[in-house]
Amino acid sequence: MGKNNSGTRRIQPILWISTLYFAMGVPFVTINAVSGIMYKDMGVSDSQITFWTALIMFSWTLKPLWSPFLEIYKTKKFFVVATQFAIGILFALIALSLPLHDFFKYSIALFAVVAFCGATHDVVADGTYIGFLTNKEQARYIGWQGAFYNLAKIISSGALVYVAGVLEKTKGVTHAWMIIMAIYAVLFFALAVYHYLILPKENKEEQKDGKTAGNVRKELLEVITSFFTKKNILWSILFIILYRFAEGFAIKIAPLFFKAPRTSGGLGLSTSDIGLIYGTYGSAAFILGSVLAGYFISARGLKKSLIWLCCAFNIPFVVYALLAYYQPVDLLPVGVAVVVEYFGYGFGFVGLMLYMMQQIAPGKHKTAHYAFATGIMNLGVMIPGMFSGMISDWIGYKMFFIWVLIATIPAFLVTLFVPFPYSENQKEETIN
Which member of 60, 151, 159, 368 has the greatest number of CB atoms within 10 A? Predict the structure, then answer.
């Protein structure tokens, strides 16, 4: 479609791919990780934080249901700019809500709208990438796409959390986080203006191609039906949900455990220390693990590698149990633990993504089915995350991280018996 549009040749793709995927990563990381640290600083309980910040991420699960309708109205560029501008306004409103008495109620509602806009932005960003790049260009820039998405983690959960910790000492907690939310707002306003000027724009009539709401609904029904009638699909769905089951518990509580006072079983770290550990060491370890996993799988094949990738993904959660038991005072063992866990996270996560691409997505509706698979995968993290705070409040941090280790068992069981309906050597063109 838009690949032959002359406008796409005037500007180097890297100039918009980098900022587009950075913008994609920020809302997800902010809601999933940064908001929890902010609410912990402001005295919200772990159970409230984990339940609501996990629940509002449901938009990323449901996004395949409204994504086809975005093809009918306006253009992808319009939706990219509109969602980024809307996210900027929402972050400004979140900043203004923090001094209010019922700040949690108002801010979490606004974060829920950020999640909807962020999920919609993901759809049109991926559509822009696929629609305006040739297959060769898509392969050339895929590494940059991942790098800038991970840069969002480094900036959001690293640099900005660190700055929040520094500002807390002079401005107080509330005003420190108001400034951080205002920075997010300015960032997204700037991104919206930049992408308005630089993003390629497809032909509106070419994009619509006679589509109506009626035939899009019919097409969506066909996509859903064909997805759930795939061979061994129920077992595959069980796999993609349970592979990350333990992570859903651990990832929500770990930063809150780091922040909690030592008298409550936590580590008593400052906000800036958490930002430094997660945003620099953790993110670097994640990227390194992801890169090495690619070489590991290419040498052995996915089927032979998958159980080892599952081990790498789930076994490192033991570091949190050790931290909870020993409660080290020094920052070094905490940093080492996060590096080990995030390296394993990056190494093991690649296996799950490749399984969805190669064993679930293939067929007539490959892109849509991959979107459905990633949406269902999100449930495996969201549901345990919603109840993680409630469980940790009930049994304490020490026993909670023992529970996380027990929760890894289903992942090993489904990985051992997960079906491979398609040969790894089968060419994509032969899959129908």
Answer: 60
Mean pLDDT is lowest, of 102-106, 150-154, 232-236, for 150-154
What does the buried/exposed string (b/e) look like for 24-56 if buried means 16 or more CB atoms within 10 Å of the residue's CB? bbbbbbbbbbbbbbbbbbeebebbebbbbbbeb
For the chain, the first-to-last Cα distance in angstroms comes to 22
Cα angle 49, 26, 142; round to 5 = 135
Tokens linked to 379: 């449930």
Give the pLDDT of residue 425.
63
DSSP for 78-123 reads HHHHHHHHHHHHHHHHHHHHTTSTTHHHHHHHHHHHHHHHHHHHHH
CA 326 and chain centroid, separation:
31
* Domains of the chain (ranges, CATH numbers): 1-211 (1.20.1250.20), 230-418 (1.20.1250.20)
DSSP 8: G
What confidence score (pLDDT) does residue 430 get? 42
Instruction: State how far the Cα of 54 lies from the Cα of 285, in Å rounded to an integer.
Output: 24
> Do the Cβ atoms of 274 and 164 come closer than 8 Å?
no
What is residue 193's three-state secondary structure? helix
Tell me if 365 sits within 8 A of 250, measured CB to CB. Answer: no
In this model, does residue 189 exceed pLDDT 90?
Answer: yes
Q: Render 323-356 in DSSP notation, one character per residue.
A: HHHH--SSHHHHHHHHHHHHHHHHHHHHHHHHHI
Higher pLDDT, 92 or 372: 92
What pLDDT is recorded for position 110?
97
- The answer for 259, left when phi > 0, alpha when psi is -120 to 50, beta otherwise, is alpha
CB 181 within 8 A of CB 92: yes
pLDDT category at 427 given cuts 50, 70, 90 is very low
Q: Which two tokens mark 372? A: 């459905």
Contact indicator for 130, 367 with CB cutoff of 8 Å: yes
pLDDT confidence band for 151 (50 / 70 / 90): confident
φ and ψ at residue 10, rounded to 5 degrees: -80, -25
Instruction: Give the pLDDT score at 432.
Output: 41
